[in-house]
Amino acid sequence: MQFDVVVIGGGLAGLSCALRLSEQGRRCAVVSNGQSALYFASGSLDLLAQLPDGTPVAAPLDALPALAQQAPQHPYSLMGASQVAALANEAQQLLQRCGLAMQGDSRMNHLRVTPLGTRRATWLSPQAVPTTPLDAPLPWRSIALLGIEGFLDFQPQLAASSLQRQQGVDVLVGYLHLPALDRLRNNPSEFRAVNIARVLDMPEQHAALAEEIRRLADEAEAVFLPACLGLEDDRALQALQQRLGKPVMLLPTLPPSVLGMRLHQALRQRLVQLGGVLMPGDRALRAEFDGGRVTALYTRNHGDIPLRAPQLVLAGGSFFSNGLSSDINGIREPVFGLDVYDRAERADWCQRDLFAPQPYLQFGVRTDAQLRAVRQGQALDNLYAIGAVTGGYDPLQQGCGAGVSLLGALHVARHIVEQGGDA
Ligand SMILES: Cc1cc2nc3c(=O)[nH]c(=O)nc-3n(C[C@H](O)[C@H](O)[C@H](O)COP(=O)(O)OP(=O)(O)OC[C@H]3O[C@@H](n4cnc5c(N)ncnc54)[C@H](O)[C@@H]3O)c2cc1C
């Protein structure tokens, strides 16, 4: 099977890269065999929140020179500061074209309220999420924080106590009782955010939901709910706000994350509209090489029939998504056998202190400045690596996971198009 580009991995990195290439007329296939990190994510996208030395970052683009000094192997340092600035803009436009309304921009981080009631610096957040500028308090004096009766993946008391303590706001805690959810509630494994959203998004449920919120939270200036609403868009939330006449906002829940899934769906939908070929449930297994080129990619579902493309992009994610694996011999990239950043001694992979930056989070595929993957010390001619499968950065400590995925995807798409001329 012949494509212009084959992408391995259908998470944020792989989908955005295939999408950008499809927008420019390239015929792309995305082979992806599992759920992506988006199903577990907050829905907010981080660009750069902290330098490796622990210095907090307010303005991500201004911090890039310091990052390049402290982490020359970081994907942003490889791409270069001016590219990163241009690609961050491009990424925001790409998300808009997918119909995703996000708040924030790359010049200045903002703070999003977490399910624990703390605030965390980030780049872009869904409109539905409560946020503040870095130096401003929450704009309300009283908030109603409402859980859903029997729903265990969001505990309003957790957020309430830190919002009260750290933000000095009055927080009223309550639980929504909605008969429409009784059938789901009877089966705890079904009573998850996504299934709840499928019910609450139905227009015929909005009156009852608004009435229940009014009963519990009439006094509060704003209402925070678990993100169990708005699987496809903000229509349900807007209807609710109109009925209640006050801001109603969503906090992420435990996975599956409605806010993250919405992002995933929007990217996927636009890719399919543009003619991208998705191969869900398929797994890339091995490749053939001719010198510095990948000539064939074999997958589980296609057996002996290889996928062929002049360009390939590896976006298989990190250990979490099996894009990297570890065994007694060390860290491996299992499909192509690429070179990885790692540490020889297993004892050096982790720190005992659970909250300290963990070295293994920096492990991943080595690339050159064009993000071409390195194998046996040489950058391959036609295989790029992007997103969480790449090494040299710590998405958690540096708060840069989504930015590395999105910007890397666009960097590579740009490079492939420049190399290949017009489609
Ligand atoms: C639990 C979790 C939560 C996170 N939350 C946030 C957040 O809130 N904000 C943020 O900015 N960052 C967050 N991150 C960082 C995250 O890594 C990036 O934001 C980004 O989503 C990673 O995207 P990716 O496409 O590189 O990888 P992934 O999302 O991991 O996607 C890789 C995909 O490739 C597939 N795959 C792997 N190997 C193969 C193969 N051989 N063949 C076919 N398919 C394959 C996997 O099944 C998976 O679907 C989080 C990370 C994790 C692990």
Radius of gyration equals: 22 Å
Oligomer: single chain
Bound small molecules, deduplicated: flavin-adenine dinucleotide
Shape: globular
Helical amount: 25-40%
Computed structural class: alpha/beta
- DSSP, total strands: 21
DSSP strand content: 15-25%
Given the structure, what is the number of helices? Answer: 11
Low-confidence stretches: none
Q: What's the mean pLDDT score?
A: 95
Strand order of the largest sheet: 12-2-1-15-21-20
From the coordinates shown, what is the CATH architecture of the largest domain?
3-Layer(bba) Sandwich
What is the class of the largest domain in the CATH system? Alpha Beta
Largest sheet: 6 strands, mixed
How is the CATH topology of the largest domain named?
FAD/NAD(P)-binding domain
The number of distinct structural domains comes to 2
Query: What is the CATH H-level superfamily of the largest domain?
Result: FAD/NAD(P)-binding domain
Distance between the termini: 18 Å
Describe the protein's topology.
Layout: E1 5-8, H1 12-23, E2 28-32, H2 64-70, H3 75-79, H4 81-97, E3 102-103, E4 110-113, E5 119-122, E6 125-126, E7 131-133, E8 142-148, H5 156-167, E9 170-176, H6 182-185, H7 193-200, H8 206-217, E10 222-226, H9 235-244, E11 248-251, H10 258-273, E12 277-280, E13 284-290, E14 293-299, E15 311-314, E16 325-327, E17 330-332, E18 340-341, E19 364-365, E20 372-375, E21 378-385, H11 401-420
Parallel strand pairs: 1-2, 1-15, 2-12, 8-9, 8-10, 10-11, 15-21
Antiparallel strand pairs: 3-6, 4-5, 4-7, 13-14, 16-17, 18-19, 20-21
Helix pairs in contact: 1-10, 1-11, 4-11, 8-9
Bound molecules: flavin-adenine dinucleotide (FAD).
Residues 8-14, 31-38, 40-42, 44-46, 283-284, 315-317, 320-323, 335, 387-388, 395, 401-402, 405 line the site of flavin-adenine dinucleotide.
